[in-house]
Queue: 2 jobs
Job 1
Amino acid sequence: MSLDKEKIKHVAKLARISVDDAKVESLTKDLNSIFKFIEQLNELNTDKVEPLTSILNQSLRSRKDEISDGKIREKILKNSPKENEEFFVVPKVVE
Amino acid sequence: MADITNQSLNEIIENVKTKKVSSTDLTKAYIKNIESAKKLNAFVSTTFDQALDKAKQFDSKPNFDQLLPGIPLAVKDLFCTENTKTTAGSNILNNFIPSYESTVTKNLWDNGSFLLGKLNCDEFAMGSSNETSHYGNVINPVGDQLVPGGSSGGSSSALAADLTPATIGTDTGGSIRQPASFTGTVGLKPTYGLCSRWGIVAFASSLDQAGPMTKTIKDCAIMLESMSGFDEKDSTSINKKKEQYSKNLKDNIKGLKIGIPKEYRVDNMPKEVDELWEKGKKILKDLGAQLIDISLPHTKYALPTYYIVAPAEASSNLARYDGVRYGYRSKQGKDLIEMYEKTRSEGFGDEVKRRILIGTYVLSSGYYDAYYLKAQKVRQLIKKDFDDSFKKIDAILTPSTPSSAFKIGEKTNDPVSMYLNDIFTVPVNLAGIPALSLPAGVDNQGHPLGLQLIGKALDEQKILNIGYAFEKNCGFKNEIKKWWS
């Protein structure tokens, strides 16, 4: 299988990363060589193998659904590139 | 007095405890070293004033019962540190100041140490040479043209150059062990779940694990003891009693069974790596261990598996960097979507973008079964290889890396050749088990090489013990000339 430029542009769109045309060229080359390497896995028959979904022999713990934190709005907003007193501010979404 | 920084962590702790040196003098000595080592570019930021305050506080009211009494430590810039900028080596976090402390760093501070500064690393820990950092590449103290390994390259460089008495890194596919091998130091990737992942900038959550990087095995045991432990805030943290790794360190390895996997003898491996492996086997055999040939048949599929699993998890983890809540935001972008796209394009470097795209692709509709599900199945086979082997052996001995440190720029144009560096370290992350890289010798250019000891899950004490016995009998001495100061 090979990835063409259109496919790469589509994946970049899904990943929300803008890629200019000059970059698409080198990305196509790099990603194809990586996928060629990855596709060695096709040599293996894995029909009867269960996928490994957790490395630990324990299931995820559950916890009580209760508030353990709070009143930290200021702290959280402090790192925002743009905010007013209570909200994160983004470019206009609704006209 | 001789150089107080040119010693092991354990010796430095003894010197503090016996009042041969104060925490303040120790901190000042490291600050001096760091200031004269700017060429190495090991630090992204420093916290000297805070460190001196903490040292002063310690000296006025010392508590010598702690594991790390009055010890200044620099840590990889992937650990969130409260009120101290944390960049993960990325432009997208160039202004991020966490309002919380990662659990492992908090554990270190609770044991008496304090922060000296944040160490450079590959961007989001994605790299094997520290060349993907937005803050510039790091130089290996072993030689001015050499990479320090990666992704914990600032950590390995700073440790080998005496800029911190010990440090911590993270290891997703070899990011502690490979830089340790390249700098003649000790690095341990613990069992998945032994050290909390809470507050560590996430790369691939099913593989990421923090661990110590030190000059000696004893130091490694002290650091592991200090940083590990159950944490409610990490859903995959293992709930078990804390071990006293340093106190329980023993150098008697008589009768232990050491597996030698034939699949780790790869094509084109330099002769010196093979010779070093032979030397390692002989040392362990002379100490009374029994060598047993084993097979880990799916070894060659570990790297291709890793390059599906890790990017898939990364693409999901890194979706959070959108320029809205924290981090960098592009000034361009007319609407919300364009703002996201420009922010991520300007904020991430090339390697991170590559991996996000790989991950997005393998998880996308129509391809999931062919890639991600396939990789999860092969991961099962890799884990089973180890499980089967550990029924008849105690530990496995392999080389840590297929070569010594390579030159800066040597592998940057070919991603796959860079990835191949992690060929011996990646299987362990996929299986979630612990592995230790220990310095064992040098190649014909005098560059350090390491050997890797792999243990079964939660068997850190055993591999530390083997490493301890090995270290005493190996005769390796890391001779680094301080050419940079």
Job 2
Amino acid sequence: MNLKPETLAEIEEAIPKYPEKRSAVMPLLHAIQKDQGLLSNGAAEWVAEKLGMEPINVLSVITFYPFFRQHKIGKRHIRVCRTLSCAMSGGAKVCDRMLSEFDTKLNGISPDGEVTIEFAECLASCGSGPVMLVDDELYENLDEAKAQEICNRIKAEAVQA
Amino acid sequence: MAIHPKEHRIILKYADEPGYTPDIDCYMKHGGYDTLKKAVTMEKKDICEEVKNSQLRGRGGAGFPAGIKWSFVDRKSGKPVYMICNCDESEPGTFKDRQIVHKDPHQLIEGIIISCFATECAKAFIYIREEMPKGAEILNQAIKEAKEKNFVGDDILGSGYSCDIVVHRGAAAYICGEETGLIESLEGKRANPRIKPPYFPAVLGLYMCPTIVNNVETLCNVKHILEMGAGEFANIGRPNNTGTRIWCVSGGVKRPGYYEVAGITLGELIYDICGGPKDGRTIKAVIPGGSSMKILKNGERFKGKDRDGTEYDWGIEDIPLDYDGIAAAGSMSGSGGMMVLDDTVEIPVALANLMAFYSHESCGQCTPCREGSLWLKKITTRMVHGEARPEDVDLLKSVADQIEGRTICAFGFAVAWPVQSYIKKFEEEFREFAERHSHADVDRTAAKELACNL
């Protein structure tokens, strides 16, 4: 495990917050996933060692929670809400537009490596649906035109980077 | 956004005021932490008594009286008592905690610390869902600010009482909103709910210590109860339904959003505040308190007898918008997440959408729920794809009936109630839909969009 110094600092800060070390498993996994882009078996072993757990118990946490992942994704992580309120206001069309704009399939990495587009379950902003998360940023009241703008922005930012 | 005259804002009083910011200076300029300053001079049992007398009921879903919940805490064991703020707002249709956390985080922190002081908690945790990543940052910043002013941390305001708050980020599992699942998750495990008895959090909660789990809105209310007094609080709304409630409205209305109200009817919320159905549309049904609650059909009559013997006969718009009103209409106010379904929405498709949600979110611990929810998804999906079998409507009901009441936690009800109630009230539509969609030439575009990713 080759973790950035700030990730290691975050980890050292997280553990003593809890009365029992094992409680820090989720904060550690969040920190490592942010650092590495995914959670490998090696990461599970590393966390297990750190917290005095069996690796299988860390792996069982990783595989339970939808926002932990063991696979690579594109540079930007796009999650479109698919649950009822967003679906009633047109979430499916928004997602289709994103997929066609990046010439990619659901859950895959776009050919340019820029994005992974997924459907997520309820993102808790039902009154301003359809909504989606682009990494940590929430976009609300979407339609196909706004989805297009977001695609354009992501592409422009990719060129600059 | 403009505040509707029928709103009664207490918790969201400042949230949408222009210039109101989530930092501590702004909060204190608006009287923030004055109530905590008063609380630390009070007897702890008097604060608990105030909360009990206010008749405050939990805002998360079940509506259990908060003061009574506090009184169940095991004091004899000598173990530390923990407070958990449930900010894992996951019930589809609900987005009230998001407003509080993003716009007025210090109000929540003040509510938590007052509650912790009153119940002598050793430590507090805020379990926040990962779908609100900014929320966790905002809360951490707010806690840091509150520590600098000695409202959180060691020897709070010289009272001798110390309490820290830890923000714990979830990872998008719906079941973490269930209090014992949340506790398992906070212990660093899969969020498999625990069976009650014996694992009542008040006795055997976090690390097998007594634990209080309260919703965000509930804890905010504690501050206001202490500020205005239990008597005044209890005068808001109807008896046994005291205080305001933040309702979240989504779907087929002109003005979806969050509205803090008290003592109004469902019709006043949907028609007056939310502007009624969109132009040219009519309201077909309302899911009153989050997607697991039983559906209310527009046009049906809700009849019965009150506790005092008076008979009622309501249309959907007459239902009192509170715990007891919605319960009297055969459903629940749940988490306050109201979904309005207009005449464009085909009920079997809405059910298919929700069954995909519930089958995804079942923790998998109990066989009836794990297997049953997948079958419910499978059957409703094939209905959307025009492959329904003649027995499917009855089969859906049969599967749901076998989940209900046969699981460790209330998720079993959450998955069964939509199926049972949609079929009970819209059985004809299910049969008609299945028949119509069995023809190869039917246009499935709208159905597939609403079912979404099936």
